[in-house]
């Protein structure tokens, strides 16, 4: 029995019924204004009388007024919040408590979170919001009226066989309920009326739920704005990921290389071991500072377009941390390079050293930076390993990160074997292009 009644009396159906009654309550001010207008047009007929002409005339006048006031910016956020909380549109069952079988319909699962956030922008979005608001209030007023009027009448009809005063009342004679056999039919008839009211409320609630994605869904402008926000967030995440990959990845590779070399000559070359330990200390200290800067941005959740980080003036410390095998040649005055280019160039050299430490097998690495009036050229070379390096399942991000950094500045990047060596060649415009 419970599964049969769940579609019309379950938690979701009851919440949608509340949503309709809320629409009826919101319609009351418009209905009162409509009653005044209709009373004036009908020659002063009782404003709140029982005349159906006044009642439905006020209803007809109130609907356009509701549509007009729905153009205010807060209408769509308010409607979306009510639809999500009471109609079950997106976000799962937020009502709390145990979910009743049958409450979560296929419509709820299908619409997902396809409702817009924020005020309506553009004529189309405002028109659809007005349509939803008017539909909600119009249907809600009818369902609210039936909810107020029908249950007392149904209960009275069901109580007729058991109350002599009701059997002798004018209500019984007016509706032809003064005969005993007809009065006993009032019991099932009253139950059917209550079930019919619940079914109508459930049906209209489902109808509104079906219309919500179409009328309250995002417009093309909303989708474009959301896509731009996601793209901006993804760009920030990618930038932070590159910073973490280059700084921490280089530090771990350099520390591993230095520790391995120191272990092999621990007894034979104490001075080299001392230099290696100093390089490890300097590398880890510098990397901790860089890591704190990047994590600070993650904690703040903001990015002003300028990520913190070392520049080319810290290049000597970077090379010292890589050990004796790195030979650095600089042509030009690097302090004249703009900060944005200097920061990205440092990261490119850092990632080049990381790749060399991973694949060069301890061979000498040459790094050349040449600055002229137009561009900064970075060239890094190391001998190809005797055997192919082991490919990591999640590897390959370093060279891709270098290419992304160069492309963001309007430069170019090439990497690959050339004449028995692995060469990384990057050209960056001196002014940078962002």
Describe the fold and architecture.
This protein is α+β, with helices and mostly antiparallel strands. 63% of the residues lie in helices and 9% in strands. The protein contains 14 helices and five strands. The chain has a five-stranded mixed β-sheet with strand order 1-2-3-5-4. Helix 2 packs across helix 6 (123-159) and helix 13 (339-359) runs antiparallel to helix 14.
Molecular shape: elongated
Low-confidence stretches: 91-112
Count the E strands. Answer: 5
* Quaternary form: single chain
Mean pLDDT, nearest integer?
Answer: 78
Counting DSSP H or I runs of 4 or more residues, the number of helices is: 14
For the largest sheet, list the strands in their spatial order.
1-2-3-5-4
**Helix amount, in percent?**
55-70%
Please provide the ordered H/E string of secondary-structure elements.
Answer: HHHHHHHHHHHHEHEEHEE
Helices and strands: which structural class?
alpha+beta
Distance between the termini: 67 Å
């Amino acid at each position: 029995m419970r599964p049969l009644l769940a579609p019309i009396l379950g938690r979701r159906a009851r919440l949608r019924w509340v949503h309709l009654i809320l629409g009826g309550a919101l319609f009351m001010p418009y209905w009162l204004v409509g009653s005044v207008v209709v009373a004036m047009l009908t020659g002063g007929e009782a404003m709140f009388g029982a005349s159906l002409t006044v009642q439905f005339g006020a209803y007809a006048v109130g609907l356009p007024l509701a549509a007009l006031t729905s153009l205010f910016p807060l209408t769509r956020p308010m409607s979306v919040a009510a639809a999500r909380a009471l109609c079950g549109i997106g976000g799962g069952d937020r009502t709390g408590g145990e979910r009743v079988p049958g409450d979560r319909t296929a419509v709820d699962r299908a619409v997902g979170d396809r409702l817009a956030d924020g005020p309506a922008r553009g004529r189309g979005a405002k028109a659809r919001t007005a349509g939803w608001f008017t539909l909600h209030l119009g249907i809600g007023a009818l369902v609210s009226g039936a909810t107020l009027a029908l249950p007392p009448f149904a209960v009275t009809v069901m109580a007729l066989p058991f109350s002599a005063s009701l059997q002798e009342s004018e209500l019984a004679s007016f509706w032809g309920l003064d005969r005993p056999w007809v009065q006993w039919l009032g019991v099932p008839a009253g139950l059917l009326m209550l079930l019919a009211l619940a079914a109508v409320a459930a049906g209209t609630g489902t109808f509104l739920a079906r219309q919500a994605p179409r009328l309250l869904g995002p417009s093309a402008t909303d989708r474009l704005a959301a896509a731009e926000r996601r793209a901006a967030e993804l760009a920030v995440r990618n930038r932070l990921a590159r910073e973490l990959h280059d700084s921490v990845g280089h530090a771990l590779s350099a520390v591993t290389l230095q520790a391995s070399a120191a272990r092999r000559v621990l007894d034979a070359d104490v001075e080299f071991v001392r230099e290696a330990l100093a390089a490890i200390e300097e590398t880890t200290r510098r990397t901790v500072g860089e890591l704190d800067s990047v994590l600070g941005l993650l904690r703040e959740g903001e990015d002003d377009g300028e990520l913190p980080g070392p520049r080319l003036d810290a290049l000597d410390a970077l090379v010292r941390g890589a050990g004796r095998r790195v030979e650095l040649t600089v042509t030009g005055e690097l302090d004249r390079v703009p900060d944005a280019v200097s920061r990205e160039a440092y990261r490119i050299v850092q990632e080049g050293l990381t790749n060399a430490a991973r694949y060069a097998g301890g061979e000498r690495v040459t790094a050349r930076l040449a600055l002229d009036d137009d561009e900064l050229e970075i060239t890094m070379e190391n001998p190809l390993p005797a055997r192919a390096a082991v490919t990591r399942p999640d590897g390959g991000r370093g060279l891709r990160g270098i290419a992304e950094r160069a492309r963001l500045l309007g430069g170019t990047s090439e990497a690959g074997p050339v004449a028995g060596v692995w060469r990384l060649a990057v050209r960056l415009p001196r002014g940078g292009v962002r």
